[in-house]
Amino acid sequence: MALLKVANLCVHYGAIQGIADVSFSVEQGEILTLIGSNGAGKSTTLRAVSGMVRPSSGSVEFKGRSIVGLQPHQIVKAGISHAPEGRGIFSNLTVAENLRLGAYIRHDSAAIADDTEKVLTTFPRLKERMWQNAGTLSGGEQQMLAIGRALLARPQILLLDEPSLGLAPQLVQTIFSVIREINRQGTTILLVEQNAHMALGVAHHAVVLEVGRVAMAGKASDLAASDAVKKAYLGHG
């Protein structure tokens, strides 16, 4: 059974259709990436999974149970964490306070301390800045904080929305190395990413969205080799 199964998902913002008919499943332990141009419905799909927007129709099942209609905090409790586009950190709180908020649904103090230490080992730059206000961090450090905070909920599946957006090329490499490492340690990842080349390089499977619908799906390596994908998303044909 797939860890996460999305079937015939439709989302409307008022009269505007965000996604029209999206279906895919994410297997335990894999990285699945959603790629596509701006406005294809990638972020809306993640927001529907994490309860930030309510689908007009279709289903979202996590471990065989429907999560449509649950509040976002209930979905976090179930095991799904979302690091949103734009990072969504609390800029007037310190790095330490932001991380602590990631664990707000947990009460196992010793395990939270262990997991915080793991996050700081993964992102040493955050360790140096624990008592700084998050708003004073660079874009790359804010992205690390957003991912670290999401990990402190100890998710079974991590939703990452545009983690490389606005970052310098060198930092993009760092963030993708971290994504690979988080997955290697056992967290399943659903990744939305504008940088299709990097996304297909790190993912096991991929789904191409076009105008709110699934245009192609398959192994990431197969899609990376596809002429249509190369031409549309990888800058060469």
Summarize the entry for a quick read.
The protein has helices at residues 42-49, 72-78, 95-102, 109-122, 124-127, 139-151, 169-184, 196-202, 220-225, 227-233; strands at 4-13, 16-26, 31-35, 57-62, 65-66, 80-83, 157-161, 188-192, 205-210, 213-219.
Overall SS class? alpha/beta
Number of strands: 10
Task: Give the percentage of residues in beta strands.
Answer: 25-35%
Task: Tell me the distance between the termini.
Answer: 37 Å
| Helical percentage | 25-40%
Mean pLDDT reading: 93
Biggest beta-sheet profile: 6 strands, mixed
- Helix-strand pattern: EEEHEEHEHHHHEHEHEEHH
How big is the Rg? 17 Å
Low-confidence spans:
none
Strand order of the largest sheet: 6-7-8-3-9-10
Number of helices: 10
Secondary-structure blueprint:
Layout: E1 4-13, E2 16-26, E3 31-35, H1 42-49, E4 57-62, E5 65-66, H2 72-78, E6 80-83, H3 95-102, H4 109-122, H5 124-127, H6 139-151, E7 157-161, H7 169-184, E8 188-192, H8 196-202, E9 205-210, E10 213-219, H9 220-225, H10 227-233
Parallel strand pairs: 3-8, 3-9, 6-7, 7-8
Antiparallel strand pairs: 1-2, 1-4, 4-5, 9-10
Description of the molecule:
This protein is α/β, with parallel strands linked by helices and 237 residues long. It has helices at 42-49, 72-78, 95-102, 109-122, 124-127, 139-151, 169-184, 196-202, 220-225, 227-233; strands at residues 4-13, 16-26, 31-35, 57-62, 65-66, 80-83, 157-161, 188-192, 205-210, 213-219. A hairpin with a 2-residue loop joins strand 4 (57-62) and strand 5. It is built from ten helices and ten strands. The termini are far apart.
